[in-house]
Amino acid sequence: MWMICKKEWQQFFSSLTGYIALAVFLLINGLLLFVFPDSNILDFGYASLGSFFSLAPWVLLFLVPTITMRSLADEYKQGTFELLSTLPLKPSQIVWGKFFGALLIVVCALLPTIIYALSVQQLSITGGIDIGATAGSYIGLIFLGAVFTAVGICASSFTQNTVVAFIAGAFVCFLLYNGFDAISKLPVFNAGADYYIEMLGINFHYRSISRGVIDLRDLVYFISIIIFFLFITQRNLVRR
């Protein structure tokens, strides 16, 4: 499994595209956080990374499918999947190896953003940032990235076209993140069902962890979604 993980890592950084994707992710977040007027934390007057943690999931929604779109689609297209299937590895080991390889790249993209927290902490005159909420928000971002990674790999397992894999992955990630929130706001669900529908979405559980409280229900939700999409991916590999 770790051999597949290493291969995924090397494949992503074997071309300039991988470095550009990470650079664009950090550049967009930096501009939103310190330059653009509507989200510039320097104009807020208090030390908070709330705008970053609100906008980062939307940037991840496009970054993660970019990372995962080649995971299995390229294997099909280049004919290396047959070679991969001859290795003494179970389909589950291949899937989890791909998953951890892509997730490691996502974590590496998030690590430099800690500089934002350190910068805001140093710029703060009194108090500083809420360490608990910030740590919880980073944990939420990692779980969010893990779910998006599982969805992206699952989308890549259905096709040999990387563009189709990217679009499908980004679309499903958008539905999981914001779709249930939008549905819960429909007037027909105002009688009380809106809360339970909202609970089905990623955003509800991401906001819950971002408060700095790690609830077991949120962890079970994220892990269940990850296992569900990786199971579908595994079934696709077995069928092929």
TrEMBL record:
Please verify whether the record's keywords include Electron transport: no
Primary location class: membrane
Domain ABC-2 type transporter transmembrane, first and last residues per copy: 51-176
How does it sit in the bilayer? Multi-pass membrane protein
Cytoplasm is among the record's keywords: no
Q: Where in the cell is it found?
A: Cell membrane
What cellular component GO annotations does this protein have?
Answer: plasma membrane
Q: Which residues cross the membrane?
A: 12-35, 55-73, 94-118, 138-155, 162-180, 219-238
Gene Ontology MF, one? ABC-type transporter activity
* Alphabetical list of InterPro entries matching this protein: ABC-2_transporter_component, ABC2_TM, Motility-assoc_ABC_perm_GldF
Which keywords does this Swiss-Prot/TrEMBL entry list?
Cell membrane, Membrane, Transmembrane, Transmembrane helix
One Pfam family this sequence matches: ABC2_membrane_3
PANTHER family hit by this protein: MEMBRANE COMPONENT OF ABC TRANSPORTER YHHJ-RELATED, MULTIDRUG ABC TRANSPORTER PERMEASE YBHS-RELATED
What protein name applies here? Protein involved in gliding motility GldF
Species this protein is from: Hydrobacter penzbergensis
User: Taxonomic classification, please?
Assistant: Bacteria, Pseudomonadati, Bacteroidota, Chitinophagia, Chitinophagales
